[in-house]
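Study this protein:
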Amino acid sequence: MSITKAKAAVLVAGSWGTALASVLAGNDLDTVLWSRSKDHADELNASRMNAKYLPGVLLPEGLRATSSIEEAVGGAHAVVFVAPSSAMREVARLAAPYITNETLIIHATKGFEIENDTLKRMSTVIAEELNRNEEEIVVLSGPSHAEEVVSKCPTTVVTACRITEAAERAQDLFISPYFRVYTNPDAIGVEVSGALKNIIALGAGLSDGLKFGDNAKAALLTRGLAEIARMGTAMGANPLTFAGLAGVGDLVVTCTSTHSRNWRAGSLLAQGKALDEVLQTMGMVVEGIRTTKAAHTLAAQYNVEMPITEQLYHVLFENKSPKLAVEALMGRGRTNEIEEIAKTTKENWLL
């Protein structure tokens, strides 16, 4: 007697979506990867490769692609949203008619919605479009390059949700011998960490491109993590989350690897290329650029000090010289690191 496999839909067929779909298919789920383009979907099925985003990588036989949102989502036990932040609301709206209240909803997008100045987290956007409780949405995040995941390099991530059962269901779907998954109840902290670390990765690319050295980069990561923690705790996150995989783990991998789109974009900016030219050269979404704009506004709304983000905002959107931005950061008033950290976390957990 045949046993029906659990079905998972992954939206959309970019590099990260394809990598996550590969994990699910490798775990023997009936996995459908949705692409907006019929030609792209047909190419994926014919070649078993995503040549545009992950060239040279053969995808699992159990993975199939479609350009029909109904075919992808209909009957799925779990739907994984991996659309760019700018397209998330539209993709969720397209999927909504085919999703039931029993469907497990997961998202793995690292950014904020900046359209119409909403500055909403992706879980909020998805919940609104699906008419679901935001606390039901699972966030998947952590130090993970798509290129390494599809090559089955050891990778560890987090599934975060206030509802433990939902986080554990997502954990069960993804965990494998090379893809280890932890759970975390702090969805806000995991989500904010994933978004804001892209800003620091842009700065790391700039720093490396300008050959500022390892000392500068170490300082950038450390002080960048302090900014992320300040903003995250102001938004209601648990400060301990920032010391975990979704916080420092994701920050390190994104700021130190040429796989990182945000690092590469920062490096191109250091070469004197204009922002439009950088985006054209990249040919893919660079979430950190949009997130810098969002975080600059959020910092003012929450009255949170984010000096690295502020200077990157000036570089990206006001044509400030990166070297002048560094001078502004180095010339800031004196402060006490430990007192600042304790104040940031709202509790003396490091003292």
Q: What stands out?
A: The CA atoms of residues 7 and 30 lie 5 Å apart. The first helix runs from residue 15 to 26.
